[in-house]
Input
Amino acid sequence: MVRQSVSIQIPQEYEDNEKNGLCRVCGKPREEFDKGRTKHCSEKCASKYQECFLYWNTFRDKIIKESSGCVKCGSKINLEADHIIPVAITDFVFDESNIQVLCKKCHAKKTKKDLLKIKNHRNKQQELRN
Ligand SMILES: [Zn+2]
Ligand SMILES: [Zn+2]
Output
């Protein structure tokens, strides 16, 4: 039997946002944070992050356990759970219909595409604000 190995991580978008000094959850720039907040823009995002942090691992393990392998290439090793619509764009973080199982390789490819999508999404929001 092939053992499924899973890297422990919260959604990649959250880490990327944090690295860029943005709200981990919604990606808002720091200037727009509520007063006194450093990592999240608001109480809402802070609790969403907490929730995510606590439940993500369990949730992800369940999805991977029930899957039959990477949806792209069929691999059964190095499986990771992926948000079909990136977390930065959707609220359906724990919606099973927004999760698919990918192997590490396929996941890395998709993450690259997602980053572009997120960028476009932000640009659009920016335009709406102006
Ligand atoms: Zn936020
Ligand atoms: Zn794959």
Notes: The longest strand covers residues 79-83. The two ends are 56 Å apart (CA to CA). Residues 23, 25-26, 28, 40-42, 45 surround zinc ion (ligand 1) (CB under 6 Å).
